[in-house]
Structures are given as C-alpha cells and as structure tokens.
Amino acid sequence: MLDPGLLEYVTVWNRVPTNTRTNVNDPQSLAIVLQDALGTSRANQILAQLPGGGGGAGGSGGQTQYNYLVEFYLASRMTRNEFDLVADQLVATTNTTGYVEGLVNINTATETVLQCIPGIGTQYASTIVAYRLGNTTGLQSIAWLVEVIGSDAARLAGPYVTTRSYQFSVDIAAVGRHGRGYQRVKYIVDTSEETARVACRQDLSHLGWALGRAAREDLEIVANLK
Strands 104-105 and 161-162: what pairing? Predict the structure, then answer.
C-alpha cells in the first residue's frame, strides 16, 4: 500500500484563463453581457446599484475594482439564477497575465482540501460536500457557495475558489499484448489554452502493479489456457 501523503491534495499546474472572459471591472463590456442574458432594464438596474454607480449600460468607470467573483456577486445583488446565467462569461481580476493561478474548484475538491480554504475550514467543509451530493445539477457558479455558507464566510473564501477546472490528471495502467509487459503513466492535461496540451508526463511503472488482484488473476487464467 502506498501512502502519498500531501501529494494527493496539492498541485503546481492549476491556472484559470481570464482573457476569454469579460472582466467585471470593465463596465461597458459587463453591460453587454448582462444585457444579452438579463435584458437592458435589469442590466441597468444591476450596474446602477454597484458601488460607484456602474454608469448603467453606458458605463462611466470609477466603479469599485473587484479581485474575485464572490465579491462582485455580492455587490451586484443578482439572484443566484441570474448569476448562474452569466458566471461562465465573467472574471474578476486586476492582473493582466491572462490567467489566475491557485484557485480551488469547490465543485470537486475533497473535504480535506476544502478545510484549508479561509472562510470554509473545518466548520463548513463537510456541509459543502454534503450539499454537492444532494445538488449535483445546481453547481453552475460560486453563487451556491454563498447560499450554503453565508456571505461573510464566502467573502473570505472568494479569493481562493472557482467552479471550473482546466487541468486534469490521467493515470493510465496497461498490459501489453498476450499479457506481456506492463506500464503505468500519469499525465497532466492543460485545457486552459485554445489547444489542449500535455503539461507533464510521469512514468509510474516502478511503483508496481496498479490494476488490482482481479486483473492479475484474469491474466493468469488466460496464460494457463494457452
């Protein structure tokens, strides 16, 4: 049995693209997104009640600068359903690198990982996991987190969370033809750019058999039949 320790809970490959989304700190572009999804009247209402006024659909600048979407969502006073309609088109950031690094996907993170996030901790981690299990189709945006743990706790968690993943690990173990040869390779696939790429390849064959006892017994049966 292998004990990977902290390796199961950390990564160096996480990043979320921002250059394909509308920055909520750009009132003119934000107005277009809101108008398309919610109509001009509701868009103007949302923009007008943002700190600084937002300038309505025309946008006047001078509004508060938002560093994360929870902060913007709370300020906008949109309903959860409204925010779910536009969340995938929005980003809240003041950096210009085109990416935000280090965010945790609250839709998939384990309870152990959730416990490490400020505002969530041991107090709300199990509550979040239980909510996800009972609401598998209602996790479109960070609005659900606000509903589950409250605005104060969500505001603390806001800088660290997202509901989308762009990097995925693939662990492949295979046996060669006629049951000869064995290899296990782990890949990290990055989809944060226009074309997916393999960010990391690691040969894990030296760690030994990973296909379970049943697969080994099946191979032995096949070998004995020859």
Answer: parallel
pTM (2 d.p.)? 0.84
Could you tell me the sign of the dihedral formed by the alpha carbons of 108, 144, 140, 19, in that order? negative
With residue 8 as reference, give the H or E element that holds it: none
Q: Is 69 exposed, middle or buried (0-12, 13-18, 19+ CB in 10 A)?
A: buried
Instruction: Please choose, from the candidates 186, 139, 135, the residue with its C-alpha nearest in 3D space to the C-alpha of residue 165.
Output: 139
Greatest pairwise CA separation for the chain in angstroms: 79
Kindly indicate the confidence band of residue 179, based on its pLDDT and cuts at 50, 70 and 90: confident
- Give pairs for 122-128: CB < 8 Å, separation 24+: 123/153, 124/148, 124/149, 124/153
51 pLDDT above the threshold of 60? yes
- List for the chain the helix, strand, coil content (%; round to 5): 45, 15, 40
Report whether 76 contacts 46 (CB < 8 A).
yes
Cα separation, 86 vs 184, in Å, equals 41
63: amino acid identity, one letter: Q
Closest CA to 145 of 136, 137, 157: 157
What local confidence, expressed as pLDDT, does residue 123 receive? 97
Structure tokens at 96: 């210009």
Give the integer Cα–Cα distance in Å for 87 and 69.
8
The secondary structure of 121-162 as a DSSP string is: HHHHHHHHHHHHHH-TT--SSTHHHHHHH-HHHHHHHGGGEE
| Rounded-to-integer distance, Cα 139 and Cα 42, Å | 23
